[in-house]
Amino acid sequence: MGRPRAFDVDWALDRAISVFRERGYGGASIDALQAATGLTTGSIYKAFGSKQKFFAAAYARYVAGRRAVMAGQLDKAMTGRQRIAATLHSYIDAASGDHGRRGCLVVASLIEASTLDAPLRDTVATTLAENRAGLFAMLEDGKQDGSVRADVPVEPCADLLLSLLQGLRATGKLRDPVDRDGLVELTLKILD
After folding, report:
1. What angle do CA 112, 184, 127 make, to 5 degrees?
2. Is the pLDDT of residue 2 over 70?
3. Class of domain 59-191
4. Which of 35, 61, 103, 163 suits 88 as a labelling partner, its CA being 20 to 30 A distant?
5. d(CA 49, CA 52)
């Protein structure tokens, strides 16, 4: 029987998330992951099996954490439009300051999608599809509750919002939005 793990897996995943967010999958060396987690190469491979599986576990934890934050913010919104506004504010906040400079693991993975193996690429594609489906539902809800113009074309609008949100996270690596409220207000005008 092997020895029990002498480290907190969630803590190690959180440290790995920071490395993967800043460097992407390809740029995150085992040495960098060791330095961030304090684990030996053997401990990393024993606990996770491979860098790919370590990344997959870190990615799943990152996405679950972001979704939990988002769910808390969306619970307060009463209409589809308010949910879209809350989503925009959440992404702007996540893309700003030191947190934004670290980057977004989903965006980093999107940028590397063509170099990822099929299972990782599929995981990232699923995340993107789920995010788009959420936006689609918010738009449909807004049309139903009257907070979004009835003739707004939902498919292209969901794609536009998804692109804007991912773009905010990408540009957050280098700069904060100048006028956060103005950006949200301008974006919401497409719903009028």
Report:
1. 30
2. no
3. mainly alpha
4. 61
5. 8
Find, among 71, 83, 73, 67, the residue nearest to 188 by Cα. Answer: 83
Q: Report domain extents, the chain.
A: 59-191
What is the pLDDT at residue 3? 45
CA dihedral 166, 171, 175, 178 (to 10 degrees): -60
Give CA–CA dist 163/47, Å, rounded: 36
Per the document, the length of the chain is: 192
pLDDT, one tens digit per residue, over 10-42 is 999 999 999 999 999 999 999 999 999 999 899
Q: Where are the alpha helices (DSSP H) in 76-117?
A: 80-94, 97-102, 105-111
123, 3, 151: which is closest to 55 by C-alpha? 123
Average pLDDT over the chain, rounded to an integer: 93
pLDDT for residue 124: 95
